[in-house]
Amino acid sequence: MSKTFKIEVDCANCANLVEEAAKKVEGVKDLSISFMTQKMKVTFEDGADENEVMANVLKRAKKVESDFEIL
Q1: Sign, CA torsion 39/49/29/24
Q2: Under a CB-based contact definition with an 8 Å cutoff, are residues 31 and 40 in contact?
Q3: Where are the domains of the chain?
Q4: Per-residue exposure over 3-26, b if at least 16 CB sit within 10 Å of its own CB, e if not
Q5: How many CA atoms lie less than 13 Å away from 71 in the CB half-sphere?
Q6: Closest CA to 28 of 38, 13, 36, 18
Q7: Dist CA 29 CA 64 (whole Å)
Q8: 26 vs 2, 45, 52, 70, CA distance in Å?
Q9: pLDDT in tens, the chain (71 residues)
Q10: Under CATH, which number does the domain 2-70 receive?
Q11: Element (H, E) at 40
Q12: What predicted TM-score, i.e. pTM, was given to this entire model?
């Protein structure tokens, strides 16, 4: 199952970094972020708890953003 979420990313590079990290979250089958439309499309693994997966995606995204700000 796929769902689309509205997101806010500051730049295309940030979108790419978050996308790469979020694709590694357990339960994510596929994920893509469009900087231009400010949307993220997530395809979940069969049987995955969507709320739990999205909570983990959000944690991973926040970590990437905080790491990026340090640079």
Answers
A1: positive
A2: yes
A3: 2-70
A4: eeeebebeeeebbebbbebbbebe
A5: 6
A6: 18
A7: 20
A8: 15, 8, 10, 26
A9: 999 999 998 889 989 999 999 999 999 999 999 999 999 999 999 999 999 999 999 999 888 877 765 54
A10: 3.30.70.100
A11: strand 39-44
A12: 0.85
